[in-house]
Amino acid sequence: MSTPRLTQKDMTEGEQRELKTLLDRARIAHGRALTNAETNQVKKEYIDKLMAEREVEAKKARKLKKAQAYKPDKESTFSWTANTSPRGRR
Questions:
Q1: d(Cα 50, Cα 44) in Å, to the nearest integer?
Q2: How far apart are CA 65 and CA 16, in angstroms?
Q3: pLDDT tens track for 78-88
Q4: How far is it, in rounded angstroms, from Cα 31 to Cα 24?
Q5: d(CA 43, CA 66)
Q6: pLDDT of residue 89 exceeding 70
Q7: CB–CB of 23/42 below 8 Å?
Q8: 17-56 per-position pLDDT tens digit
Q9: Cα(41)–Cα(35) distance, rounded to whole angstroms?
């Protein structure tokens, strides 16, 4: 299942600031105002990088959650009386 594309609204304040900084650096490097295509290219590259980072973090979180999941004790034996009602099935 693929995650939906990240938008600027979904970004944190720090990530939005970083995007603005990247756009300003690109504008300064070109020495002029960026075209829509150039702006979109910078945004797309940054969003791709962010999505990859978030996916790595999500994988780590899933792995940790799986490792911490409840595991029944393999040493204990199964007790029918503990799991059945004394009245039986109704």
A1: 10
A2: 29
A3: 666 666 666 76
A4: 10
A5: 34
A6: no
A7: yes
A8: 999 999 999 999 999 999 999 999 999 999 999 999 999 9
A9: 10
Q: Nearest-CA neighbor of 3 among 66, 41, 57? A: 57
Residue 4 has pLDDT above 90, yes or no: no
**Residue 2, pLDDT score:** 64
Written as one letter, the residue type at 8 is: Q
At 55 the pLDDT is: 94
Contacting residues for 47 by C-beta, under 8 A, at least 6 apart: 5, 6
Residues belonging to the chain:
90
| 17/21 Cα distance (integer angstroms) | 6
DSSP code at position 79: -
